[in-house]
Amino acid sequence: MKNLLLNISLLLRETISISLGLLLLLLLFSLIRLGNYIGDHSNISRLIVDEQIERAKTIHNTDLLLIGDSSCLMGIDAPLLSHLLNKKVESLCTLGFVGPEGYSELLRKYFSRGMKSNRVILVFHGIQMKRDSSWQQWVDYIKDYEFNQNSKSKLIHNPKNNILLLLNKFLFIPLHNKWGEYYGSDYSFSSFIRRHHGTAVDPNSPLNTYIPVGSAPKSEAYRYEVNQQYEDSLEPLEQVLLEYNMHDKTMLMISPIPSSLQREQTMITRKSAIERISKRLNISDTEIIDLPSSLQARYFATNTHLAENGRNYYTRLLASYFHFHEVQN
Amino acid sequence: MVSSYIFYGWWNWKFLGLIFLSSLLDYFSSLAIEKFPKYKKVYLILSITTNLSILAFFKYYNFFVESANQFSELLGLGNNLNTLSIILPIGISFYTFQSMSYTIDIYRGEAQAERNIIIFLSYISFFPQLIAGPIERFSHLLPQFKTYQPLNKTRVQESIWWIVWGYFLKIVVADTLAPLVELAYSEEQRFGWWVILGTIAFGLQIYGDFAGYSLIAKGTASLLGFDLMWNFQCPYWSTSIQDFWRRWHISLSNWLRDYLYIPLGGNRFGNARNFLNLIVTMLLAGLWHGASWNFVIWGGFQGICLAIHRFYQRCNGQMSKMGSWFLTMLAIFTGWFLFRIQSWKMFISMVESLQNFRWLPGHSAALVEIFVLTIVVASIERQQYLTQDMSIFAHSSFLTKTVVYSILLIIIFAVSHQTQTQFIYFQF
Questions:
Q1: Eight-state DSSP code of residue B237
Q2: Which residues of chain A make contact with B421, given a CB cutoff of 8 A?
Q3: Which residues of B are catalytic?
Q4: Which of A22, A160, A171 is the best residue to mutate to test the B interface, defined by the most B CB atoms within 10 Å of its own CB?
Q5: Does residue A165 carry a pLDDT above 90?
Q6: A139: left (phi over 0), alpha (psi -120 to 50) or beta
């Protein structure tokens, strides 16, 4: 018993300095706040939205500001476009779930800082036009983002979160599936978006693997359907554009779909959707970017996202359009 | 002994009987070897055969059945044998070898058989090293059960360092690299850089995992008054394959040398026989690691590398230290690639992907982690290697220790729930 007590006291004496040092470090890390550690490595959507919110609060004046859904995020190469036009191009594109009301919030965060842009390019895919009420959580998330950040301004923070934020640059916890294979970790993915002016590559991309034209299975005709919820969500966007005097500097483009999905009915519904949206946003016909409504299937990673080769091709098409129509200014 | 049996039984109490009976067999066999020297060979054969039969059944039965079925299918004879639903008892490879080494040593007259059954059972089942080694020799560990080793300041300092550094290697190095390795080793791998980065990461992972465990075991045993052998001695600083196997999983290497390689003839019967002995020994070493052909191939590869090295030595080959180190690491990590492969399809896919060396953002992220972890581990190991002191921070000043240990522990604490993987060597 005596030996046991002696051993325990010896152990305690040796560990006491370590314990004190550890407590001190934990206290230090609990008194600072380095940011918000998500820790959810499967939530790609949240990573995208968070990154674009932060960028909306930090990027400077632009010549062209892209905003829209993931067809824009993955389908337009902003650095390439910038290089081809010799203009400053930034993208705040996110997801279809965010919708026009969510895009308006991002624009508000950008413009309310006193930042300016020569043009706002709205890039919408048909998939977002049939809006679901459950998507409203994304709009609320963007609206409440700063409030939630500030409400975390307590005296004592979670030290583990702070330490993980520091270590996050070095830890490789891959995103799921092809996202992890292409981008690695969430930090790496966010860095990529930042370095590429707010754009990204769809990792499910076949990466230039050639798929013979016509090999895509026969599909039903794609239909553009604008529902009332979507149309209602255009109003806040219109208001923001008016508020920051961008209403006559806004252009609209509809992202392409695989040609295998396009039929005559597709074109009719597309035209109708464009008319409804442009009317709601007071965008004139001359401000509607007329690029091909469809591209060959080999340019696509999914039905909504262009592959890397398609992204390159489509960006060059867009640059050519701007050059041709001399709308840089 | 009681605590060790409780520890083992906590995993699955049903296998307590197996370790107990296996231990009893060797206890009585050894006593019989001493008491009846005329029949000592019989008792030795009985002990080894029974131990290996138990190991073969639990670990290799399904492997041999599946291999036999595949072979007979190849010959057009169809599937004739059924596999069984067998649970591999944890630690069986380790305690079986430990137990056999005892019996063989008694047979060789290198030690006297232990009469105290409690001490003997404690030696076989000693919980810090029961599950994943080191495979302790009777002459080193068993006497320690008979003498009380009081704790002193040095011992406590060293033990704490081993445990903390062991946890760092396991949780921060091994566990954080595990997702990277899992991503790289895929049957649909398309990118050559993932193969290379994944293999480097696996080499670090398996080292962090196993060396980390061994250090924790050594530190824990030390706090209880027991000294376990060193199982790793900075193996990635080796400048030859022979040197590597003197630094990596030392207890197994020593066991194979003493109970397999030397009895086969070692290097006593010329070059050809020597090379054959090396290859056979390492083939069986590979098989010991797991019931799968990739482990056997890995073992064979290691044996061939050892044979080549032996041949090179005999030709008085000369090479710079850096060159030797590089070649050694190339051989080791190529071996790790074979070790980690889980299927023929994976092998083909990963080899084919070596035609595509496109660099992705993910590769940069992976490289950063590998680089940072390598620098941290290498910095500490370099000091250990140069000073031959494996307890480098244990004897530092109060301030140095406080800072170093606190930083290590806080990183362990922060990272600990991000990824959790089982100890790799628990599956052997």
A1: G
A2: none
A3: 289
A4: A171
A5: no
A6: alpha
pTM of the entire predicted model: 0.89
CB contact under 8 A, A172 and B365: yes
Residue A278 in this model has a pLDDT that exceeds 70: yes
Ranges of each domain in chain A:
1-29, 41-143+172-325
Q: Give the model's pLDDT for residue B267.
A: 87
Question: Which DSSP symbol is given to B393?
Answer: T
Query: Residue B79: what pLDDT?
Result: 65
Q: Do A184 and B362 touch (CB under 8 A)?
A: yes
What's the residue count for chain B? 428
The pLDDT, as a whole number, for residue B192 is 96
Q: Residue B223: list chain A partners with CB under 8 A.
A: 7, 11
Q: What is the pLDDT of residue A210?
A: 45
Whether ipTM > 0.90 holds is no
For residue A232, the model assigns a pLDDT of 95
Across chain A, which distance is largest between two alpha carbons, in Å? 93
Q: What is the pLDDT of residues A77-122, one digit of tens each?
A: 999 999 999 999 999 999 999 999 999 999 999 999 999 999 999 9
Three-state SS at B268:
coil
Between the alpha carbon of residue B421 and those of residues B209, B411, B424, the distances in Å are: 10, 17, 8
Q: Is the pLDDT of residue A208 over 60?
A: no
> Residue B389 has what pLDDT?
83
Percentage of the residues of chain A whose pLDDT score is greater than 70? 88
Which ranges constitute the DSSP H helices of B240-360?
241-245, 250-256, 262-264, 270-289, 293-314, 321-340, 344-352
A209 vs B24, higher pLDDT = B24
| Buried-state track B125-152, b at ≥16 Cβ within 10 A, e below 16 | bbbbbbbbbbbbbbeebbebbeeeeebe
Separation CA B224–CA B245 (nearest Å): 29
Indicate if the pLDDT at residue A218 is higher than 90.
no
Which residues does chain B have with pLDDT short of 50? none
Please state whether beta strands A250-254 and A257-258 pair in parallel, antiparallel, or not at all (unpaired): unpaired
Portion 204-233 of B in contact with A at CB < 8 A: 223
The full 3-state SS of chain A, as one line of letters, equals: CHHHHHHHHHHHHHHHHHHHHHHHHHHHHHHCCCCCCCCCCCCHHHHHHHHHHHHHCCCCCEEEEEEECHHHHHHCCHHHHHHHHCCCEEECCCCCCCHHHHHHHHHHHHHCCCCCEEEEEEEECHHHHCCCHHHHHHHHHHHCHHHHHHCCCCCCCCHHHHHHHHHCCCCCCECCHHHHHHHCEHHHHHHHHHHCCCCCCCCCCCCCCCCCCCCCCCCCCCCCCCCHHHHHHHHHHHHHHHHCCCCCCEEEEECCEEHHHCCHHHHHHHHHHHHHHHHHCCCCHHHECCCCCEECHHHECCCCCECHHHHHHHHHHHHHHHHHHCCCC
The CATH code of domain A41-143+172-325 reads: 3.40.50.1110
